[in-house]
Prior knowledge:
The chain is of the alpha/beta class. It has helices spanning 19-24, 48-61, 76-88, 107-114, 126-142, 157-173, 188-197, 214-229, 254-267, 276-288, 306-309, 313-319; strands spanning 15-17, 32-36, 66-71, 91-96, 117-120, 147-149, 179-184, 203-207, 239-241, 298-302. It is built from 12 helices and 10 strands. Strands 1-2-10-7-8-9 form a 6-stranded mixed beta sheet, with helices on both faces. Helix 3 packs parallel to helix 4 and helix 9 (254-267) packs across helix 10 (276-288). The N and C termini lie far apart (42 Å). It binds pyridoxal-5'-phosphate.
Amino acid sequence: xxxxxxxxxxxxxxxxxxxxxxxxxxxxxxxxxxxxxxxxxxxxxxxxxxxxxxxxxxxxxxxxxxxxxxxxxxxxxxxxxxxxxxxxxxxxxxxxxxxxxxxxxxxxxxxxxxxxxxxxxxxxxxxxxxxxxxxxxxxxxxxxxxxxxxxxxxxxxxxxxxxxxxxxxxxxxxxxxxxxxxxxxxxxxxxxxxxxxxxxxxxxxxxxxxxxxxxxxxxxxxxxxxxxxxxxxxxxxxxxxxxxxxxxxxxxxxxxxxxxxxxxxxxxxxxxxxxxxxxxxxxxxxxxxxxxxxxxxxxxxxxxxxxxxxxxxxxxxxxxx
Length: 321
Ligand SMILES: Cc1ncc(COP(=O)(O)O)c(C=O)c1O
């Protein structure tokens, strides 16, 4: 793979055994592992650092001077894009599909510290947010800037190369890996991993309700990411767990709450209500339903997201999660 990359993340991230969580899920002690992509660094860490290494390299190669992207109010992608822009001396404009909070919490606090230009666009659905990002880039172009527009979640074929590389890293760390479990927001992380492994059967994505078409997004994303990387087309079909999203994106669920509690109490892993808690709930459901077996060599991809936990203090306080 020879796409350009600017180092922004602490790589390789650790791969840690999770024997106490494995025991709680009646799995063999060496069957369950945690890939610590919450430890990528870059203003708090998370999966987006890997994508940004490729996206920023592309932006710089194109001579762009402002990164433009968007997300929900508690977007980790937005926070990390602002961080990458600061490190590289680029401007950054972000579109948040929300109104400005009266009192900033969680990622919004970090956004204000990192200080990108923020456009509070009000509630937008996924497609409207993509349109708003492109419209912001057009406005900047009209002002004489050279914008680099990134889709929600950095889910372009360029960004997905970050997870093609992560699949290679995982194979080196755990050669007999059977399955990686990850949250699906935009689907770019899942798609890149599938492209890197060359097989849809090796990745189980847990939809968190961010977009209406996660299965199609993963399928098309993986196809394009593999072609871009010069790899064989992945076999099989996307493995997507759709029962954990709950009523809506960013609305916490009881299953997610139990998963957050179990991960914290067995392995001191801090998950969040929006992404990783729901992803862990998906892993637990797949194990209980027999889709993950006792001995299945399973890696849970911890994609970060801890700042969002601080935006749900009542949820934590009233549920004991
Ligand atoms: C903490 C966290 N986990 C998972 C995801 C989902 O990743 P993707 O958008 O690549 O599906 C995101 C996306 O923003 C995230 O912030």
